[in-house]
Amino acid sequence: MTGILLAAAIAYLLGSVPWGLLLARLGGHGDIRQIGSGNIGATNVLRTGSKALAAATLALDLLKGVAAVLIGRRWGESAMLAAALAVVLGHMFPVWLGFRGGKGVATALGVLIALAWPLALAAALLWLAVAIAFRYSSLAALVAAAACAVGAPLAVDARRAAVIALVAILVVVRHRENLRRLLAGTESRISLKKG
After folding, report:
1. What sign does the dihedral 133-135-137-143 (CA atoms) show?
2. Domain that residue 106 falls in
């Protein structure tokens, strides 16, 4: 139990590092929460016009998920799964930002890479296909998350599948406002313009 709690605590703190906010400030764009959707993730960082910062945010948020699972694995399967969930919760609800964080898509993908890389690859390709076809990052995330929840039992054991499904549900819940805007036709599209 000590290992599980320690792994979860480390993972939460790792997940709560707001890379999008930090990189945007370092890049001279101010507080990313005052731009676009107000989110701290890569999609909103892209709205600053810097593809490099957006890519760096995506990579670092993804690596948080991978690192947390690998750290948790040191204490066994249960600690690993606790860390997988905690790192996503840390990103979504970081203590440093008043528990108002990101949507968790990149961090969830990092967790998925560490737990079931074939499923992660399929999810990433599905996200890319939907994003290119419709130019809605949120729609792509919702479709990929739903697919992961459904596909997990076919790819991994029951315990891992349950954690993957729970992470997918968290991602969907965090996108509830996006879903409302998608249904209303007011959701922002991904900009493909050079910046």
Report:
1. negative
2. 2-184
